[in-house]
Structure formats: structure tokens, C-alpha cells
Amino acid sequence: MNSNRDHNHPPRWANKLLEWYCREDLLEDLQGDLYEYYERNLAKGKRMANLIFIIDVFKFFRSYTFKKLKNKYKMNSYMLFKNYFKTSVRSLARNKLFSFINIIGLAIAMSVGLLVITMIVESRNFDTFHLKADHIYRVINTRTNGRGDEFKMATTSHFISQKLEDVSGYEHKTTLYGGFGGDADTGDKKLIITGLWASEDFFKVFSFPLIKGDPATALAEPNSLVITEDTSYKLFGAEDPMGKLITVGEREFLIRGVAQNPPKNSHFTFQALGSYSTLVNENQSDPDWSASSSMWITYIYMTIPHKEDVKQINHALRQICDTENEVIAPLHITSKLQPLSDIFNGAALGNQLGPTLPATATLIFAILPFIILLTACFNYTNLSIARSLRRTTEVGIRKVIGATRWNIFAQFVIESIIIALLALLVSCLIYIPLRDQFLILLDGDGLSLPITWSVVGAFILFAIFAGVLASIIPASTLSKLQAMAVLRGSSNVRLFAGLTLRKILLITQFSISTILILGTIILNKQYIHATSYDLGFSTDQILNIDLQGNNHQLSRDAFAAVPDVNSISLSEHILHSTMTHLKDGKYKDPLDSAQVHINYIDEYYLSNHKFSLIAGENFKYRPDSADEQHVIVNEKLLERFDIDPLKALGEKIELENKKLAILGVVKDFNHSTLDAPIEPFAFRYDRTKYRYLNLVINSDDYMATIDRLEAVWRSFDELHPFSATFYEDEIERTYMMFSMLIKVVGFLAILAISIAAMGLLGMSVYAVETKIKEISIRKVLGASALKLVYLLSKGYVWLLLVATLISAPLTYFIVNELIIAEFAYLAPMTIWDVLGGLIVVFMIGLVMIGFQTYRAAQTNPADTLRNE
User: Which of 240, 242, 256 is CA-nearest to residue 198?
Assistant: First the structure.
């Protein structure tokens, strides 16, 4: 009984709150009454009793129950803060140059921080609109081949979806399948739509409200269709689309629902949803479609009401995979659940339904601005410590009249926060154009970066954090000074630690700037290397046109009539740009399989792209109905299966249960980006698979040629937009993320060096001011201007040299070992790449120091010494 009574006590924090605010003469009676009520309410349940106790504690939070505040220092706290505020504003006004440097430096750094804050706040709000967001999970897969290569994917298989029907613990399950869409034809209008195949419980799992239709039955029947508001308006205008027939591609659908447009903070969007049962009916006799290894385009989501059921379902998934792995060995699959909240901000996975911002990318985006903010804080610290001797008397007098160390510390922190809040106002002016440019850089990739009240609140907290961070060292240094030592004279005050700290901070600032500048130079070199690398085939003057479902032969004949088109080939994929198919290939040993990249081509493709055929021959024309018989492979495939190149022709390779004879062997080429090694590759011939035309153009006016080609396209397809890209542009687009990284790092490098240069300018101004009499005396004694510049600058020059010696090897390690370590083909880094960046940083530093010291050296000694 006693142990149970001890266990059933009210929330401790609520009890502590009561003791904190309640008057001592009322506390005992009030607390006793609340305890009695709590014991009585336990009959309603512990949670209800706790809730009532908390409400009562807040209910008695009245003026007559408050404790009287003790005025320990005979000074009203509001007046104290007001005094600190006035003192801080006057101090900033007296030191306009230092205040300007600190405000602008912090504003530049904070503008990037504001961008990251907006991005993080928005990314954390993804998918939160679903009513059951905390209970929605996705099944994800890890596929491991016979060599131990792992592929982590957001997709799973129809096989897993079927097996989960026999598993308990979840409330609802929906299976999605990508690739729905095409030309939607109502008879009066045509529109290109995209979307997903979805099973009947889609609207029970996700909160996409239906404007029209029944969520329980809208996707239940085969050939059912749900469209969004926008799609409905584009196809039917103001008419009611319910019950109307519509053709999408080659299938006819009945519209059974109209959904609200998916919000922007959804990790996937759609214009239409086709019933998943349509696909099931069409593919039920296809063993490949329902195989466990077919996991490239299927997604499973489920609602799980209780956390303990997550472990149960994960265990069931492991059992399903373990049983299946015995059948599909050496292939190995592993499935598990992923919370909805981890999809947009989780680990990077293949085959995502939409754009994501992995946690590692978010962390990098957060760390880089924080580094820039640190450099701005270093400016404040350096300049504050440099000016500290001027304020020691102020500190001493305040301590004599009763100020504590905490009072002095608080004054300098408030001064720093005022600077940070002023910097926030300036940074907002920089942030607005910066945000627009960043959105252009993202190219609409999932984020819109809206400014909400929560974002504004985060901005203010960030400014306060920056102010506190910048003030900790100078406030601690000045607040610990002893009043007697200060008032005896400034010569008695020693800040040697501060002087050493200033040097360390300056070195750190310029080291960071140098690392960012060197990093930009090296990354840009790798980008140029990647976009101009000899891939092993030609991309010169090749224009790739997306067929978008049009007949390849009719399209080819139409474009062949354009005079500037030399030759045309056909392919399923654009090598080094779009993804190729990965299929399991086998040679003689049925248990030995390797993943082989596949591209379907025609008989002109190899010659158009100037592949080097080292053995055998090219494909010859075959009609669409002819059976596939041959394959052309690369050297790496022969090496993988240990096939003698001299005896390779005629050997059979099994791909997708077809035995294909090797017709030719091409020299190895880079079919993927340079961060991936060359892998086994096979060209296949199937005239039903082509998706691209590859035109070799020879023209003096490429823009005019493109216009002519577009006019030809319009002659046979008015619905689809003309989509054509030169191969070189395709390759540059492939490295778009790498290019974005260079721009981001380069921009941060400019910010860092600007902040560091302003800090160095402030330090040199202070050094000149404190040594102006020494400079004048030296001039009177005959010192030349150059000699004075040397004496004043040499200390800073040594600091710059130390910074360059630290940053050069550190940059090499960061770039080569962390950023581009996975690149299989790198551009070698030379001494000139490093020297170029070091010279830039060194010259900026010398200009900042030399300009100010030279001005000081040119002053007239009489103006300084006339009153001595």
C-alpha cells in the first residue's frame, strides 16, 4: 500500500512550480488542499489526476499568491537592464568603425544562417499535414548482390506487399507503383499527366482530402481514376468530372474521385492516381512482375497505431526476407520500416518518390554557415579584447560602486546582443536576394523557403545566440578584472592571454578563409575535369531528343529531312546522364551472377558515338517482331566472367532469362559519372525500347537549326513540348549538384575572406591608433615610410604565413579524403592550384594591413607630438 501511495504522487515539476511562486504563509494550506484533491481524483485514473493537479497549480497563479521579490542590490531589475542598454548604445556610438565592422561582419554571416534556418524549419514540416503522420511507416529495402555490393532503396516489391497481407499489427496498408501517366484524352481535350498507381486504402493512410467521391471506394475497382483539382479544371473546366471516361496512354479509366492538390510539403505529389488493381490484373500471369527481386518502382506505406507493433512487423519482414533469400541466393534482400518523418530528412536512398534533403546534407548546410558565423564572432572578440584597455577604468569604477562580476558580464553580453540584433536587420536585407538566388540554384527541388512566424522567431533566437556566442570571451575577460588593480593604472592590467588569443583567432579566421578558397579552386578543377573527360565515346555535336512516346521511325524520318542533320541513331538511355537498367547477368555458372548495365540501341548508335569496336561486328537491322539474339558487351563484362577476349564472340550471356550470343566487344567506356568505376555493360537491340533520338548536327547556326527541328516536331506532335539537349549540356546537368557545391563553397569563401579582411582592417586601425606616438617619434628620428610599414605589418604577415601553412595540408585532406574520395577518376592536384589560393588570401591580407599602416606612416609627426 505504501509503495503504491509513494508511486501515485503528483507531477514533481508542477509541485516545484507551486513552491517557487506561492507565498510561504499560503503554501502549506494550498499544497495540502491540492494533495487531498489529487488523492480523490486518482479514482478517475492517474493521468486525469495529474492533469487536474497541473490545471489547479496554474489556476492559483494569481497576484495574491505571488512571493514578494527580494531587492538584493536595492536596484530595480528593469532599471538595471535600462542602464545596461543605454551604456551599450553609447559605447557603440563612440566606436563607430568597430561597431560598423562587427555589425556588417555579423550581418554577412547571419544572412547565410537565416537561409539555413528557413530551410531546416521547412524541411521539418514535411508530411506533417497527415492526420496519422506519427503512425505512418514506409517499407524500405536493402538489396545485396553476390559480390556484397549493397543498394539501399526506398522501394520494395509487390511480393512483399502480398506477404504483408498475412501479417498483423498494422491498421491500413497501401501499395504505390510509379510510372503512372501519359497523354490523357477526354475526347475534347488532351493533357500530359503524371501520377502514381495506388491501392484502395490510399486515402485511409494519407490525408489527401477528396472533394468529390468516396475515399473508401475511389480506388477499389480496376481502371478507376482519381484526379486533382488542377487536373480536373484543365481537362473539364467547370464541369463535374465524376463518372466520366478518360483515356490515359492506352488504358481507359472511369473517374471516381477528385482530390485537393497535394500540398508543397509532401514528399511526393501527383496529378492523378490510377487504381493499383488495374496493374495486378494485367500482370498476374507475369512471374517477373511479382518476383521478390523486382523492387525498383513499388512503394508500401502503412499506419501502425502502436509503437510496440513496429518491432513485430520488422520481425515479420525479417522472416519473410530470410525465407525468400534461400530461394534467390546469392541475391540477398532485407526489408524494414521507416517512419514517415524520416523520409524527407532521412538517409539517402535510391528510387525516392520525390526530392529529399538527407540529414547529412542538412548537417553540412548547417555547419558551413556556423563556421562563417564563428569568423564574424572572432572579429567581435578580437576588437573587443583590443579595446579592452580603454574600458578597464569603466569596469573598475562599476565594481567600486557595487557591481558584481555577473553585472559586468551581463553588460557586455547585452552590448553584443544589441550588435547582433542590429546585424539581424541588415542581414535580412542581404537574405532576401540570397534566398531568391538559392531557390534558382535548387531549381524548385522540393523547397520553397517561406517566411512564417516560426521562422521569424527562429531568426530572433539565432541573433541572440550569435550575440551571446560573440561576447562570451571578451565579457569573461573584462568581468574578471580586479577594481584596485585597474584604478592604480592601466600598466597594472595584464591581458597576455588575450593577446595570444587574438593571434589564434586571426590565424583561425584566415585559415578558414584559405581552406574555403582552396577548396573552391580544387573542386572547380574537378568539375572541369569531369565535364571535359574523355568518356571513351564521342559526344560532339550530338543532340538528344526525347521521343515522349512518339513512333521512333516516323520521328526519325521527319528529322532526317532537316539539312543540318548528318545522321540519327536511337537509344533507350543517355549514357553518363540518365540511369541505365541494371539486370542480373550470368555466364556458365547459374549461381554466379553480376549486375550488368543495359542500354537498348539501334544499328547506327555505335558509329554515331564513335565507340571503339575491338572485336566482332555491329548490330544489323532487324524488324520489330524479330526475336532478340545478340548482345554487344564491354571489356569489363568479359573480365568479370573470365571470358577470353579472343574467344568471346558467340559465347552466351544470360540476361532476363534470355541466352544472348556475344556479337561484338567494345573498348571500356565511362557509362556513368566519374565517381563510379567502369562496370559490366551490354548493348542490346530491341526496336520497341527506344526513348531517344540521337542527332549528329553540323551547323553554323545551332539556334536556327534547333528552331527548324522544333518546327518539325510540332508538325507531328502538338501536345508534348519539344525536349532536346546537346550531349555536352546533358553531362553538365549530370554534375549539377557538384556545380552547386562549388557555388556554395565559393560564395562562403567570399564571405569568409570579406569578414576576415574587415577584422584585420579593424585590428590594424587599432594598432596604428595605439602606436601613433611611437610612429611619430620614429619619423622624427629618421625612419622611412617603408621601414615603418614593415615594423607595423610584420606581426600580421607572420600570422598570415602561419595560417597558410595550416590551411594548405588541411584543405588537401578535407577535399581529397572526404569530399571527392569516392571519385574513381580524379584530376591531379598540383602545387599551382594551392599557390593560387594562398596568393589570393595573402594579397588581400597585405592590402588591408599595408593600406592602413602606410597612411599612418605618412602622417605629420608635428600633428601628433605638438601637445607632448
Answer: 256
Paired sense of beta strands 251-259 and 210-212, if any: antiparallel
Write out the DSSP string of 621-639: ---TTSPP-EEEEEHHHHH
State the Cα–Cα distance between residues 674 and 533, nearest whole angstrom.
Answer: 9
pLDDT one-digit tens code per residue, 308-323: 899 999 999 999 999 9
Q: Give residue 73's pLDDT.
A: 43
Q: Assign 3-class secondary structure to 57-100.
A: HHHCCCHHHECCCCCCCCCCHHHHHHHHHHHHHHHHHHCHHHHH
Kindly indicate the confidence band of residue 661, based on its pLDDT and cuts at 50, 70 and 90: very high
Give the pLDDT mean for 609-630.
88
Summarize pLDDT for 193-243 with one digit per residue, the tens: 999 999 999 999 999 999 999 999 999 999 999 999 999 999 998 899 999
Distances (CA, A) of 20 to 68, 78, 123, 317: 11, 21, 39, 52
Q: What mean pLDDT comes out for the span 348-365?
A: 79
Give 235: exposed, middle or buried? Use CB within 10 Å, 0-12, 13-18, 19+.
buried
With pLDDT > 90 as the criterion, what percentage of the chain qualifies?
A: 30
Which residues, 6+ apart, have CB-to-CB distance to 146 below 8 Å? 330, 331, 592, 593, 594
For the chain, the residue count is: 868
DSSP H stretches of helix in 593-735: 605-608, 635-640, 702-716, 727-734
Residue 183 has φ and ψ, to the nearest 5°, of -85, 115
Q: In 3D, which of 213, 151, 208, 145 has the Cα closest to residue 176?
A: 208
Looking at every residue in the chain, the average pLDDT score rounds to 83
Is residue 547 classed exposed, middle or buried when 0-12, 13-18 and 19+ CB atoms within 10 A define those classes?
middle
Q: In the structure grid, which three cell numbers stand for residue 850, read together?
A: 599595408
Q: How far, in whole angstroms, is CA 235 from its chain's centroid?
A: 36
Give yes or no for a contact between 317 and 140, defined as CB atoms under 8 angstroms apart.
no
Element holding 791 (H helix, E strand): helix 785-813
**pLDDT of the residue at 483:** 65
Q: Which of 464, 572, 422, 506 minimizes the C-alpha distance to 100?
A: 422
The yes-or-no verdict on residue 497 having pLDDT over 60 is no
- Work out whether strand 251-259 and strand 272-275 pair parallel, antiparallel, or are unpaired: unpaired
- Give the C-alpha separation, 92 to 236, whole Å: 65
Contact 680, 597 (CB under 8 A): yes
Query: How many CA atoms does the CB half-sphere of 325 hold within 13 Å?
Result: 17
Beta bridge partners of 571: 601, 692
| Stretch 280-295: mean pLDDT | 84
Half-sphere exposure of 48 (CA within 13 A, CB side): 8
pLDDT at 247 over 80: yes
Burial class (CB in 10 A: 0-12, 13-18, 19+), 755: buried
Give dist(CA 319, CA 796) in Å, integer: 67
Residues 6+ apart with CB under 8 A from 371: 512, 748, 752
* Amino acid at residue number 77: S
Q: Mean per-residue pLDDT for 823-849? A: 75
CA angle 313, 314, 318 (to 5 degrees): 115
The strand pairing partners of 212, in sequence order, are 258
- DSSP category for residue 22: B
Residue 786's CB is within 10 A of a number of other CB atoms, namely 10
Distance separating alpha carbons of residues 517 and 240, to the nearest angstrom: 60
Nearest 5°: CA angle at 528, between 524 and 533? 145
Report how far residue 196's alpha carbon sits from residue 180's, in angstroms, rounded to the nearest whole number: 5
Q: Read off the pLDDT of residues 464-473 as tens digits, 9 standing for 90 and up.
A: 888 888 888 7
pLDDT of residue 774: 79
- Selection from 138, 128, 155 nearest residue 338 by Cα: 138
